[in-house]
Fold these 2 entries.
Entry 1:
Amino acid sequence: MKKLINDVDNVVVDSLRGLAAAHPELHVDLEHRIVYRGAEPVPGKVGVLSGGGSGHEPLHGGYVGVGMLDAAVAGEVFTSPTPDLVAEATTHVDGGSGVLHIVKNYTGDVMNFEMAAELAAAESDVRVETVVVADDVAVEDSLYTAGRRGVGGTVFVEKLAGAAAEAGRDLDAVVAVARRVADNVRSMGVALTSCTVPAAGKPTFDLPADEIELGIGIHGEPGRKRVPMTNAGQIADALIDPILGDLDFTGGPVFAMVNGMGGTPLSELYIMYADVVERLTARGVTIARNLVGNYITSLDMAGCSLTLLRADDDLLGLWDAPVHTPALSWGR
Amino acid sequence: MKKLINDVDNVVVDSLRGLAAAHPELHVDLEHRIVYRGAEPVPGKVGVLSGGGSGHEPLHGGYVGVGMLDAAVAGEVFTSPTPDLVAEATTHVDGGSGVLHIVKNYTGDVMNFEMAAELAAAESDVRVETVVVADDVAVEDSLYTAGRRGVGGTVFVEKLAGAAAEAGRDLDAVVAVARRVADNVRSMGVALTSCTVPAAGKPTFDLPADEIELGIGIHGEPGRKRVPMTNAGQIADALIDPILGDLDFTGGPVFAMVNGMGGTPLSELYIMYADVVERLTARGVTIARNLVGNYITSLDMAGCSLTLLRADDDLLGLWDAPVHTPALSWGR
């Protein structure tokens, strides 16, 4: 295993230390591994909080900032953060208007965020609402999941609910945006290689040099099937087909993300995006906004995922609203 | 070789097709592999143009847009674009105030951009000035280079000269900014793995599982030496020492970039950045601005590079000026 790390037991804190040094505008609690937008909550604004296991950077810490998350709680690699820390962050970001928890659908995360919501409500009377993201069409249940896994759709929920909160909408309205996004977003991924968890020191799974795994999970959980390595166009089909089979994306504008898993260069992601656009266009799907890059990764895994979200005028406006975070930034 | 590609002979055009689809605000000439900021030059503005071999994405095409490049000419992977295409792009971006060529110091690039400047001057009377970037302290001459190689410093030259042009400065002033940056920027890289050129189908060089190569070039050219794999802190030292040994970075603010080579996850780059900051601070170097991410890559190589640039008030102001490109974006 060759990684730019110092100690397999400290990779999360060491990485957060770098994030804090690079982004002094953020307030990073290294001891509790929480990235905050600032030292104090924004008065009157709904707090938007997410988190989960580390290893998916820039998710979630890279999305803390104006127009997106108020805080992100980082667990160990591929391990949910504990309820007490999520509760602490929840209390900290409550500006008096309540807090939204955005939770990827993994058993540990769902349980810990639920306990955290109860703890925060009991301790500081903060109103917490939770939206669970379960957008991965690959498999119904999985290693760490009852139901579908939460993957790339989380990036859209965080941006769009974050923009709604920034615009001053109340908790019910912010929750409504998050739910609408979660209900209308679908993803599917593919692995060309395994990832290697630092503490394990070896690849999570073995994948032959001439095979790829369709429907891979972001922790290396088994996908749908292994197939011989093929070209970008056929891989695009293999991602698009199950997504379009699950939800109708015709008849309105769509957000699309071609996301890298961490070890795949940007040039290849653009090749994938070209093929995705060509195929979606042929099938009557119109992309209104896009993201191409590394947005939700699996450590050093090579591969990519496709996420589609049905847009509406409100969501398009929220998307275009300014955002200033380490990993997504545009507008004033 | 597992890559998200369709045809090893078309990776550059296929990738540009994706860039064009993702960024309809750009004007992409797929036939000639030129990415333009728009269909027409900006009247009165100095044109800022760069380019070179592909495989370093987002450099250069990802830096075309408001506040940075007017055009980028993409050669084949690791191969300079031909003079006729560079000349065509030069003529196209001339808004009547001349054009700056930003050229990485590789023999093919230097020669082809020089011929292009002569062609453009002869054909359309455009005034062209050239700034060559040669910031890599690793080796004096190299496989494709007389003198030092041009690497990460190019990102800073493109942003800062681009901002100077956007601010309406004339060609001499824009050239002066580019030269000042080129004179005051230094880089050093390390490879944990080789890269694989698609058309070659196998790694460019062999690197044992327990060794890294210090001073690697962005095309996999030999570095200074191979050493046993070690931790991020010691790698930070191995990058910092030769840079500080070459130029004094104390006594004023500094720009710093920890750049990924394409196959290294962001979490590891932040770990490197934390170590870099700690060490530079101890040695009296003060970082005023930073970039952490994949900005100039070597296909799928794992590894990173460090770039330091001496700042001054003018450069800091130019850095903070708005930029809107696929890969760098902030401000209005």
Entry 2:
Amino acid sequence: MQQKQLINWLMILLFNGICFTPKAQTVVEDFKPSSTNQPGRDYPMVNSEGRVRVQIKAPEAKRVQLDIGAVKYDLVKDTAGIWTGESAPQDEGFHYYQLWIDGAAVPDPGSLYFYGAMRWGSGIEVPAHDQNIYALKNVPHGQVRQILFFSESTNTIRRAFVYTPPDYENNLNKRYPVLYLQHGFGEDETGWTNQGKAHLIMDNLIAEGKAKPFIIVMTYGMTNEIEFGGLRNFDIKPFQTVLVDELIPYIDKNFRTLSDQPNRAMAGLSMGGFETRLITLNNLDKFAYIGLFSGGTISVEDVRNTPGLKQKVKLVFVGYGSRELDSMKTNARNFGGNLKDITDAVAKEGLNTHFYVSPNTAHEWQSWRRSLYEFAQLLFK
Amino acid sequence: MQQKQLINWLMILLFNGICFTPKAQTVVEDFKPSSTNQPGRDYPMVNSEGRVRVQIKAPEAKRVQLDIGAVKYDLVKDTAGIWTGESAPQDEGFHYYQLWIDGAAVPDPGSLYFYGAMRWGSGIEVPAHDQNIYALKNVPHGQVRQILFFSESTNTIRRAFVYTPPDYENNLNKRYPVLYLQHGFGEDETGWTNQGKAHLIMDNLIAEGKAKPFIIVMTYGMTNEIEFGGLRNFDIKPFQTVLVDELIPYIDKNFRTLSDQPNRAMAGLSMGGFETRLITLNNLDKFAYIGLFSGGTISVEDVRNTPGLKQKVKLVFVGYGSRELDSMKTNARNFGGNLKDITDAVAKEGLNTHFYVSPNTAHEWQSWRRSLYEFAQLLFK
């Protein structure tokens, strides 16, 4: 896949969304408060079909709408001035949404808030058949640490979150491999834990013996500073400098890492996958594992044009939501071919590849949670 | 101060607020975006008088208001449907606020969100003359770690945040004293870092050599589960069990603590001060330092009725905002006397006390940031 094609396709996924027409016409009345509600709030609710029902008191309002999955649903007012209404069924997993009150776009006061679509705003969890992989369980838990590091190239104090595995504090002689994990466009360094539940996915995998304990570092990918008109001229250098020349040395100094190339991985979702591909291919001496979650793939041209890639990279993981792949079929001209075929062709060049499809999910967090769950089990082994 | 009097007084502060009438009638036009805005947002703004100006697009709305400091201010709509308006001058420091749009109380989409008043909602920072004490500077920074621990008594997995000082990760043989630090009613374990900036206060104090490096543990004080009708029968036992029997052992196992009594402190603001007083007096073998920030005091009766208190407690710190003390003068019958006099009387009993007054602040975070700043310099020395 060429860079330009990848960008075209990311644009389509980001800005058009992937909508599907609900088939059910009657609403199943088994709504329950969502797990992403503020403490003690009954609304928003979700039912077994994945419909989202919201409620807000706005006695003087003329029109109130729920805005989710790029569709606005009108709410209905009762005599007490309370507005209620629900969406069509949503896919399993996490979705951003907002309310419209007489033309004002505002967060739902009932939900917790998440950073995505370039704003802190409402999000909601639609229970998934495989939510067990990121459930909060009574297993040993790692820590999620906020660190502040000085970046000389940007002359700023920058934030990252660092997941350390459960045994990190009780094993002071042990050193750990590290995964650098990037969010997508419009998101930030809070996304992988708040929306992605990366720390719970890891705690559960480690408790089951399915993944080797490793550190995860999540920082801001500077993607929101990209003007969209200028994306075709996207320059990876500023972020690459922060990540490779500033953050990695900080992490290796302040955490008990294994700092050689075979013990460092990078992955990202959407724009973060785009960044991962560029940074890892520019730094084959530093990264052994590459994870691209709904963010392109490594092409045969990449393999042929990048000396050392075949020798140094232990795994290229490519993950997508099935609805993304469906969408690509109908937009084939933009994508330079079938992603599975491209990945298989790369494997034939001699690279270890893994292609993963998340069932019935789109360009959303459930695809990326599942991708991390699969990718983590293949790392550092 | 009797427990009943303390409760009366906490009620007054919590539910009446402390309002003052603005004197300035003309608005100084030097508004700037607040430091607590979402990335890239111009509004809300604050001017040099401490006025808060908000702006929101709501073309179909009939009435939009800014609700801050227990006063609602009407906004004015322009021809593009954008509403703008400002408050009277606010005190220095952090304040919760919200917007009303045609009768709906919602967060301002321009601000970051904070947990207080029992909801995630808008907050705004009014620059303070002493903001240097919690400024983000290029000094060595500690970490703020989210931990998850199992609580048998409540059968829940509970969250705490743990501040570790800058040298913690580079000094693997060193052990540290611990401060347990509680939020107030309507708040949670996120308050002391998000609103209080406790980690930055500590980083700066340590960089200047003004405080001994120590660990801070912040967990949810279960205060929001108290029905206010039932506050007079407030039972400290459930939270005391979580803190003393479950969290302290977890911290001592998973962090490099000094776990003896002289190296453990507890402090809290408002309801958290109330909890601190009860828990420390019940556990003199575990806590050597007591910090009460706008949350009552230790009385002469406490000293006389609690065997061992004089011998075991190294410091009782009592901090208040000056506007709280002003309010107490006019409500003298509720408070059992002047707090400074009470604290001085306790000192005469032979206890080491420290009474601190935060200038020109009320029952708000600026009083508590300053109290922590003062208290931290007296700990573990």
